[in-house]
What does this fold into?
Amino acid sequence: MRQRKLIAVTAALAAGALTLTACGSRDEGNKAGDSAGDVTVVIGVDAPLTGDLSALGLGIKNSADLAARTANEKKYVKGVTFKIEALDDQAQASSGQQNATKLVANKDVLGVVGPLNSSVSESMQKVFDDAKLAQISPANTSPSLTQGPKWAEGQKTRSYKSYFRTATTDAIQGPFAAQYLFNKAGKKKVFIIDDKKTYGAGLAGTFKGEFTKLGGAVAGEGHIDPESKDFSAIVTQVKSSGADVVYYGGEYPAAGPLSKQIKAAGANIPLVGGDGIYDKKYVELAGAGAAGDLATSVGAPVETLPSAKDFIANYEKANFKDPFAAYGGYSYDSAWAVIEAVKKVVEGNGGKLPDGARAKVLEAVQGVSFEGVTGKVSFDEFGDATNKQLTVYKVEGTEWKSVESGTYGG
It folds into this structure.
């Protein structure tokens, strides 16, 4: 490797930026037609690596890194070395767009894993699509990302053919939660709150539609600013509404304090949310009163899946500082989908990276099908995951415990 690479690595080590040592690429980028033994393929990763949502973002980064390491150890694509380039979007759309531009500029990047937030993805999709660079999110759940802005009206259109996801959508998650609450938990009167963001508002909307369809009543609705940790105004409304449950569309940094304040005000009713609150941090923020709160999350509990045993063992062996969290298995599978696509493209070109590799990898991603950490991994005509399973979790003590798994309507 050239001296410039050595200098870059040395500088990264000196700065303590260990993630940068896993993303080195050749100065001039891979040349089409090189033998596979000479190429480095970079998998970009975009997630919040700092800030309130970093507990989820770091799990995404580490799991994608583990996929790259595993492929290299197995020599899964003969002669190809996979590396990751992980960028921090701080859960901000503007940062995500800048990161997308940076990843596109690195010619070695042939696929991207991320981001966490649907609102961030909205700012990145066109950048990747224009570059014919495959993007696979392990966590985005907003239906509009794959099915267009009028999906709820039955007008489904795929705006960006470069976008895929291994997580199922809120078109399924919201109704799944409504069915559980109404039919299984016996909750008939809900107060609905969201944070006005793409993810939160969309999730709350799909929940409301199914809950009222089932015969449930909406005791009240409101919005909060997730940056403000004083939710006394909406808490007062919840307490006087007579609701027997609160449904929150948003993420754990606000959901935890919201639950805590609702209980402190004397409204001893559970707060329920989606995958955005399903994290250990929620339980810490909500405190002892969180017992009985519920969350839905994509897929089945990774710890219960036979397909995830090697992933869990290898993650532990890798000694990552942070847990794989809610989306680790889906991040690994997202990265592996890129790896599978690269393998198909290289093997279909006589063991060499072809001209127009990005576009060919993108085309190959659409057709991938393999048994992953989270089960069968493949994509439908919209780029959505064909795995539609979800799980309901309940806070018991200081942990989330699974109470039911299934699919919407199933």
In short: The longest helix spans residues 54-74. The two ends are 54 Å apart (CA to CA). The chain has a mean pLDDT of 91. The chain is about 40% helix and 20% strand.
